């Protein structure tokens, strides 16, 4: 399996030449992601930063909500979490996806902005690889992410939604996250090639360089 980061919360997963892309994006400051072809697309929520499916060419199967999906090489489970107060007239949800293929389980948190319940965490405990937003501007607090990491105990964590450097020289969300997790000498790579025999024994923070051209 090959995993690449396309920017923001969007990741491209290639399992035996079947492509799955998560959260195609259009951001106000960087614009829409370059067009990509994919067989499957997962959408975490309705915000354009997670749902710009027009950036995907071809005729992909779009997974856009909680439930269970078996599509080609992938078995996908969507778990709904609220983005707004459940008492509001039109409550909005974020969908966490677990993506199973080749004996691996990838967990994509999407736009998660709050703590998970014990029942929700139980549904994620099989995840080997966690895709998690770590930017300072992310709505997911670092403390909450640490709780998720402790509960799930993934073997690999891939940080998402961060900028590589701030114009004013202040620490980025990535810098802060690496410091908080005690990670040193983290080296970015363009793509992660992984199978279940290559999983590390303990948590590894794997930085991916954005491949957005």
Molecular structure report:
The protein has one domain (2-205): 4-Layer Sandwich (Metallo-beta-lactamase, Chain A), CATH 3.60.15.10. A seven-stranded mixed sheet has the order 10-11-12-13-14-15-17, with no helix packed on it. A six-stranded mixed sheet has the order 9-7-3-2-1-16, with no helix packed on it. It contains four helices and 17 strands. With 213 residues, it is mainly β. 13% of the residues lie in helices and 34% in strands. The model has no long low-confidence stretch (mean pLDDT 89).
Number of self-contained structural domains: 1
Indicate the percent of residues in helices.
Answer: 10-25%
Which class best fits the helix and strand makeup?
mainly beta
Rounded radius of gyration (Å):
16 Å
The number of strands is: 17
pLDDT averaged over residues:
89
CATH class placement? Alpha Beta
Could you give a short account of the major beta sheet? 7 strands, mixed
Strand content: 25-35%
Low-confidence spans? none
Q: What's the CATH H-level homologous superfamily?
A: Ribonuclease Z/Hydroxyacylglutathione hydrolase-like
Instruction: Order the strands across the largest sheet as they lie in space.
Output: 10-11-12-13-14-15-17
Q: Can you name the CATH architecture?
A: 4-Layer Sandwich
Number of helices: 4
CATH topology: Metallo-beta-lactamase, Chain A
Straight-line distance between termini: 21 Å
The best one-word shape is: globular
Give the topology string: H per helix, E per strand: EEEEEEEHEEEEEEHEHEHEE
